[in-house]
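Subgroup meeting minutes
Present: P.N., E.W., G.H.
Scribe: E.W.

1. P.N. recapped why we're keeping a running log of single-chain structure predictions: easier to compare across weeks, and new members can see raw inputs and outputs side by side.
2. G.H. added today's entry (124 aa).
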Amino acid sequence: MWRELGFTSLEDFAVGFWEGFFLDGRDPNNLLTMLDTWWNGDVGATPGLSSTEEALASIRARAIVMPAEKDLYFPPEDERWAVSHMKNAELRVIPGVWGHFAGGGANPVDIAFIDEAVGELLSR
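Output recorded in log:
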């Protein structure tokens, strides 16, 4: 798959993609803040609501939830459960092997999948 992104070898991919992504000069506090959100963010702790299910059911916005098929951080099974409690949401799993990086802008197939869904959502 690294060839599809224009890399000449697995080592070229590791340096150009992975190191290029993580060693880009960003403030490390950005990642620490994301990690804190992942660990402590809990929609079920919304004041005035008694459960995660109630919090999800209170979301009225139209939504297309698009987890990646192979995402191990936010697996489709978890998102399927969440969407089942949301009144105006649907699940569309981004197909492919890119995992958490699906939809990050590197894969044209993912971009087309997401763009189509967003266009459809905005046209409603």
